[in-house]
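Write out the 3D structure for:
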Amino acid sequence: MDDRELVQRAKARDARAFGMLVTRHQVRLQRLCSALTQDPDAAEELCQVTWVKAYEAIGHLRDDERFFGWLRQIAVNHLRDAFRRQKLPQLPFDAAVHDLPDQSDPPDELLLRRERQMEISKAMAALSLHDRRILALRYEQELSYQEIARMLATTEGTVATWLYRAKDRLRRAMDTPKGRQL
């Protein structure tokens, strides 16, 4: 069964169909929540709240084929509200979790990669929550400018500006010249 069919059944309050949607999208939602919060406990809480809100509001989903996009928006909106209320901690970014080494690489390359990851983590920790979040959406979640703009209720041009500034601040935090790739 595809998402569209499961959503239609879930709208009719078929708990089994909703459970199948949870099973299908849990890992992806967990990755998104982890990238957005940068904290395992906060990510777990965000996931749980997102699933509850999705179950309660599934009848309002307009496009049954865009279930995960709708789910992602619920998570982002809840996180935005939680940060406004200062309920979630602002913890440093942990790049090492998202770029696990390939064990076939030579040990010296693994060491260099780990050092680079630590350098990036330290620099990311110095950035604002906004900068960390915009970088995570683009580079960890690999969302397009259009998807980020829609998610954050802004324009693609604004997203491009935010990303440019966040990368520039990251470069400065790492003391990396502009021409060099991060």
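The CA atoms of residues 35 and 136 lie 6 Å apart.
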